[in-house]
Design brief:
The chain is an alpha/beta fold. It has a single domain, classed as NAD(P)-binding Rossmann-like Domain (Rossmann fold), CATH 3.40.50. It is built from 4 helices and 5 strands.
């Protein structure tokens, strides 16, 4: 990113409100996902951060989570693929002790509208956007729900950014 956003690295102290929890955060390498991963860790949760390809950014997040004294699992994958969704949930649960308490679905395909005229997007591009920004959220929630059943106060949270209404 041209301007580095404040993702809580300096501003989020935490108070242990999520101690003992295990969270899967998709899109956990940057922006909102990075901020959520940092905040969850500072509040006492272990974090699995799923990302597409920005390994350097993901490793930075892992260092921040571990710096807060929490466990961090990094999971790389294209969540538009159903098998990748299953592998993501499995890896998150296995890496965080066998179950999850929280899932934050934050990943998204965010093409720059200044680069394209959306009215002329090929059907394949539209299908890819739907697979990433809608289909994968539903599939991940389906796959994660059984892992949350035994947790006390489990949650699945879906986030979005300004891209939802001002692409």
């Amino acid at each position: 990113m041209f301007f580095k956003p404040d993702c809580g690295e300096e501003s989020c102290a935490g108070s242990g409100k999520l101690a003992g929890r295990a969270a899967l955060v998709t899109g956990g390498d940057s922006g909102i996902g990075r901020a959520v991963a940092v905040a969850f860790a500072r509040e006492g949760a272990d974090v699995a951060a799923a990302y597409l390809e920005e390994g350097g950014d993901a490793r930075e997040v892992a260092a921040l989570v571990r710096g807060a004294g929490r466990n961090c699992v990094l999971i790389r994958g294209d969540l538009s693929d159903e098998a990748a969704c299953a592998a993501c949930v499995d890896a998150a649960a296995a890496g965080l002790g066998g179950s999850l308490t929280d899932v934050v679905l934050n990943h998204a395909l965010q093409p720059n509208a200044a680069e394209t005229d959306w009215t002329s997007n090929p059907a394949a591009d539209i299908q890819r956007a739907l697979a990433v920004n809608a289909g994968s959220f539903l599939r991940l929630a389906q796959l994660a729900a059984p892992r949350l059943a035994a947790a006390r106060g489990p949650s699945i949270t879906i986030t979005t950014s300004i891209q939802a209404y001002q692409p």
